[in-house]
Write a structure and sequence with these properties.
This protein has helices at residues 2-60, 69-79, 167-216, 231-301, 309-338, 350-360, 362-367, 386-402, 461-471, and strands at 81-86, 109-114, 120-126, 131-137, 144-148, 157-163, 346-349, 371-376, 381-384, 409-417, 420-428, 475-480, 484-490. It is α+β, with helices and mostly antiparallel strands. β3 and β4 (131-137) form a beta hairpin.
Length: 491
């Protein structure tokens, strides 16, 4: 109901004011036409007549006085004006023209008087035949005066020219000719005024309608910026305020939704990792348990090669040790993921820690006939847990030894790289395929798929290294070099 009343009120206002504009525009236009047309026509006639007079003067300059009558007659016929040629002594000159004003009597002295602003030309004759004064009304238009010289005379003559048409008739004729154009101009002007005003009145409503459509589509990137003080302006400002509040609420909702979606995705990823971890762990434990069961069964039954119990008891013990190490690593990883192992933060001498780890692994390197080359800069310290860092360094060293052939070199360097504490472990005569490099730090990942214990460990060593280093704000990257494979740790 409110919208209907508002629309009816606006329609009435537009109609009334448009009608007033049309009436006022018509009145003003016709008033201007009535006032300007006579003056405009007079100006047009005078301009055209002046052009013709100038042309006549140029022709007379190349003509003798006695031969100028035909030129004057031709000029008077074409211009429909009166013409008088006055000599140097102020008398009308005999030109032989049939249309131009000539002396009244022959052998008489004719004097001509033309008053400025007076539409009459007065000339007086004196002689034996008559003594009269003749007054001739030429036109209400001012006479056009031009100096004339003839080719056979040196004296200066004066040519007076005035129109003979009636101004009132010309004005009416001009109005009749201009009426269609005036009507078109009036109609165009009226339509323009009505259109401009209607747009001025309805434009805010159109904008509000467009804004309401945007709000329906949850688009709040706009502003009415309405400065009117009426109800429409108040409505626009209310829409601005409502849009700002809705936009703020929508942004908060989007942020919360995004955060919740991120948490859900993170939980899903953790669940996927847990499932993958448990699946791989089950596979890793299943194989040695099966081997151990077969060996024990064969020894109990005394079947074939298993009669040599001492030999296979030793192998069973080795299998149990591997399972024990695997379970210990799995427990460590599980505790770290659960947050049970937080580690104590302290200043750790990284060089000394690496040197101690090298001393404990020296026997392993010696058994595999591998040569150790170490270069440890003193005083390289980091903040972290010594036991966790020692385990990470030990895993890197054992990996380098296990995946290197006999008589290979194990090169260990500790110092500063790019201004940060760093550690590099490089094993020669080794190579890792480019496809395997991005997956080396995944749980239970091994480059060869057989999972044979003779060719490597459990696949949790580098995964544990990554977890420990991430807790210490460090990164580890493994790459192939010209000599072998190098692991670089940056703290």
């Amino acid at each position: 109901m409110l919208r209907k009343k508002l629309a009816e009120s606006l329609t009435a206002r537009i109609f009334v004011i448009t009608a007033l504009i049309l009436l006022g525009a018509g009145t003003i236009t016709f008033g201007l036409i009535a006032w300007a047309t006579p003056n405009t026509y007079a100006a047009i006639v005078n301009d055209e007549l002046t052009r013709q007079v100038n042309t006549l003067v140029e022709k007379l300059a190349h003509t003798a006085l006695d031969d100028c009558g035909s030129l004057l007659d031709e000029f008077i016929r074409s211009s429909k004006a009166n013409a008088i040629l006055i000599g140097p002594n102020g008398e009308i000159t005999e030109t032989g023209s049939q249309l131009a004003i000539q002396p009244v009597y022959e052998d008489d002295t004719t004097m001509v008087t033309i008053s400025e602003g007076d539409p009459t030309v007065t000339y007086t004759t004196e002689g034996t035949k008559a003594d009269d004064t003749v007054i001739v009304t030429m036109s209400e238009q001012a006479a056009i005066t031009s100096d004339v010289r003839f080719s056979d005379r040196t004296d200066l003559y004066t040519l007076y020219v005035t129109p003979r048409v009636e101004a009132e008739n010309l004005v009416v004729r001009t109005l009749v000719q201009m009426a269609p154009w005036l009507l078109l101009v009036l109609l165009a002007f009226s339509l323009l005024c009505a259109f401009v005003y209607s747009r001025y009145v309805t434009r805010p409503i159109v904008r509000l309608s467009s804004i309401a459509g945007k709000m329906a589509k949850l688009d709040f990137n706009w502003s009415c910026e309405e400065t009117r003080r009426d109800e429409i302006g108040q409505l626009g400002r209310s829409l601005d305020e409502m849009a700002r509040r809705l936009d703020a609420a929508l942004q908060k909702l989007k942020a919360s939704n995004h955060a919740l979606r991120g948490e859900v995705e993170q939980e899903r990823e953790l669940d996927r990792q847990r499932m993958s971890f448990f699946s791989a762990a089950s596979h890793e434990l299943k194989t040695p348990v099966t081997i151990l069961k077969g060996q024990l069964t064969g020894m109990l039954e005394g079947v074939g090669i298993y009669k040599d119990r001492d030999k296979y008891l030793l192998r069973s013990l080795q299998v149990i040790e591997r399972m024990e190490n695997l379970i210990k690593e799995m427990l460590t990883i599980s505790r770290m993921e659960a947050g049970s192992i937080t580690g104590k933060k302290a200043q750790v001498d990284l060089s000394a820690l690496v040197e101690r780890q090298l001393s404990s692994d020296a026997e392993l390197l010696e058994q595999r006939s591998q040569h150790l080359i170490s270069q440890l800069a003193p005083g390289i310290t980091v903040k972290g847990d010594p036991s966790l860092l020692g385990k990470a360094v030990g895993n890197l060293l054992s990996n380098a030894s296990l995946y290197s052939p006999s008589r290979a070199q194990i090169r260990v360097w500790c110092g500063r790289l790019e201004g940060r504490p760093a550690l590099t472990v490089e094993n020669t005569d080794a190579y890792i395929s480019e496809d395997a490099l991005p997956h080396l730090f995944e749980a239970f990942y091994r480059e060869e798929n057989s999972r044979n214990r003779s060719t490597g460990g459990s696949g949790l060593g580098l995964y544990l290294v990554r977890m420990i280093l991430e807790r210490h704000g460090a990164t580890c990257a493994i790459e192939n070099t010209d000599m072998g494979v190098k692991a670089t740790v940056l703290f």
